């Protein structure tokens, strides 16, 4: 097994996703590459030697020594406010990865794919969507994206014109925009039945978001008859930001 080491990462560009989320592209000399769905560790070191580190999913497929993250600001956090509010092009952090081998999608797979995202859980799933496009894969994807309201939608412009073979269903939990197909509320059995694949299609299911959302969505997929071994989950909770 390859030993993970800390590498210097230089910020090269940024893009705002929402009022509190920012996409950051880093150049990481020596980066070994990664699969869609993997994550990495980011470490900050203060002048007095104090360090803080957090794990973040990568938002795009491997592209040489470029690594892209999308980070949501955690109020009073130690790492995310620096990444989203203070970092400028040319600034450095340290990264270590890639980490994880279960929650990944590879273009060689031929099974249909169901992606179920809760809030910022869209990030590793977006890497899978982009990997599909980069590879020219014709595997059909369906994305069920649950978020508080329209203003919290990540990658809004890119997903407004999805690639052929990618179908998207938006679910709003706090406030649904005018013309939405359903009222605001949590994900239901009907949402996943309508926006997902029938279980007998044997899709690979990827669910990512806060712990409560992931557990609820996975239980609903099981109730719909999806095989447990085809349901892959990635959850996140309070980490101090």
TrEMBL record:
The keyword Metal-binding applies. Residues 4-105 form the FAD-binding FR-type domain. GO terms for molecular function: 2 iron, 2 sulfur cluster binding; oxidoreductase activity. Keywords: 2Fe-2S, Iron, Iron-sulfur, Metal-binding. The keyword Acetylation does not apply. Its cofactor is FAD. This is Oxidoreductase. It comes from Nonomuraea zeae.
């Amino acid at each position: 097994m390859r030993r993970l080491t800390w590498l210097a990462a230089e910020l090269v560009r940024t893009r705002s996703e929402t009022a509190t989320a920012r996409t950051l592209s880093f150049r990481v000399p020596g980066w070994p590459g990664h699969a869609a769905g993997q994550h990495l560790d980011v470490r900050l070191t203060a002048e007095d030697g104090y360090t803080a580190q957090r794990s973040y999913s990568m938002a795009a497929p491997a592209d040489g020594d470029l690594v892209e993250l999308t980070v949501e600001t955690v109020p009073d956090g130690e790492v995310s406010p620096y990444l989203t509010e203070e970092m400028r092009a040319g600034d450095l952090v340290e990264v270590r990865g890639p980490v994880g081998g279960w929650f990944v999608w590879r273009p060689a797979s031929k099974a249909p794919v169901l992606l179920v995202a809760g809030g910022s859980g869209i990030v590793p799933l977006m890497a899978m969507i982009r990997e599909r496009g980069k590879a020219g894969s014709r595997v059909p994807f369906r994305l069920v994206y649950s978020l508080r309201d329209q203003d919290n939608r990540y990658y809004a412009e890119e997903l407004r014109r999805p690639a052929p073979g990618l179908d998207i269903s938006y679910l709003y939990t706090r406030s649904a925009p005018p013309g939405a197909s359903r009222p605001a509320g949590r994900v239901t059995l009907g949402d996943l039945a309508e926006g997902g694949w029938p279980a007998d299609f044997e899709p690979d299911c990827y669910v990512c978001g806060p712990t409560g959302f992931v557990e609820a969505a996975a239980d609903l997929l099981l109730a719909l008859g999806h095989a447990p071994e085809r349901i892959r989950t990635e959850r996140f909770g309070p980490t101090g930001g």
